[in-house]
Amino acid sequence: MKNSIATILLSAFCLSSFAQNSTYQSWKSVANERAGVLNVNYFDNYPFAYSDPNGKQKGIEIEIIQEFQKWLKVYKGVELKLNFKQYDNFDTFYSAIKDGGNGKIGLGSVTIRQDREKWAQFSQPYLKNIAVLASALDVNSLQDLTGFPTVFEGKVALVVKGSSHEKELLQIKEKYYPEMRVSYASNPKEMLIKMKSEPKYFGYVDIISYMAFTEEQGGILRVHRAADIQGELFGFVFPPNSDWNTIFNEFMVGGFGFTATDEYHAILEKYLELNVIQEVQLR
């Protein structure tokens, strides 16, 4: 009887250990076993990564990581399971990757920045970005950045905490409009909804997020193109001790590179209008 109990306890311990190890696995261990799990943390931000009403993960970043999953099976003989976890707040998503262990990848429309490389590893870029300044339609068009105090007098700037836009907006505040009031939002959609419902708000959003929102809601906001921020690149992000970035970057740059494939362009065409694709695609 004692031996039976001991056997049951040992089996339960082994199963528990296996479950933990299979949930947080290095690429090295997955490659050796030819099978494993990659935890995919994603920031809910249509059309980059989101869940449909049935709970199915969709979006540009989701489909790219699924192409990586297929690539591993074909070219490396590895069966990979993707374990998705959704985040509604960018700052929380950011911290989960920053403080995470091996076996994790972040999908968060994250801008590749040198200061972020102190705490994370980035993939090769998968998309260009343009950050646009949006406001209510009744706000006069901004002609250049020196006009911030006049055009946005008495209004409140919105920004997602921890985003690249926060840093850029605070630089504008310091240089052009020290009296600017700044308020924080959890995600771009919350910002855009506030701009639509309350004309006192304005702020920077990614051009893709802006176009997706206006397509859904109708043309209801003004974009101040004189304040565009260009030259940004989006990438996938890994915790600092991860070994997954090496194999993922092999997927991204192998041959002519993933961004040169029909699969890449099919993903963009599924979620974006042609005029937006022309501005953001990598060639």
What does this 3D model show about the protein?
The protein is an alpha/beta fold and 283 residues long. The chain is built from eleven helices and twelve strands. The protein has helices at 2-23, 27-33, 60-76, 90-98, 148-151, 164-176, 188-197, 207-217, 244-253, 262-271, 274-280, and strands spanning 35-43, 50-51, 57-58, 79-87, 104-111, 121-122, 127-136, 156-160, 181-185, 201-206, 221-223, 229-238. Helix 3 runs antiparallel to helix 10. Residues 1-22 have low confidence and may be disordered.
Could you provide a short overview of the structure?
This protein has about 280 residues and is of the alpha/beta class. It has helices spanning about 1-25, 25-35, 60-75, 90-100, 150, 165-175, 190-195, 205-215, 245-255, 260-270, 275-280; strands at about 35-45, 50, 55-60, 80-85, 105-110, 120, 125-135, 155-160, 180-185, 200-205, 220-225, 230-240.
Structural class: alpha/beta
Structure summary, number of beta strands: 12
What separation lies between the terminal Cα atoms?
Answer: 67 Å
CA-atom Rg in angstroms: 22 Å
Provide mean pLDDT, rounded: 89
Share in β-strands = 25-35%
Order of helices and strands: HHEEEHEHEEEHEHEHEHEEHHH
Shape label: elongated
Q: Which sheet architecture does the biggest sheet show?
A: 10 strands, mixed
Low-confidence stretches: 1-22
The number of helical elements comes to 11
Task: Please tag this protein with its features.
single chain, 283 residues, alpha/beta, ten-stranded mixed beta sheet, two-stranded antiparallel sheet, 11 helices, 42% helix, elongated, disordered N terminus
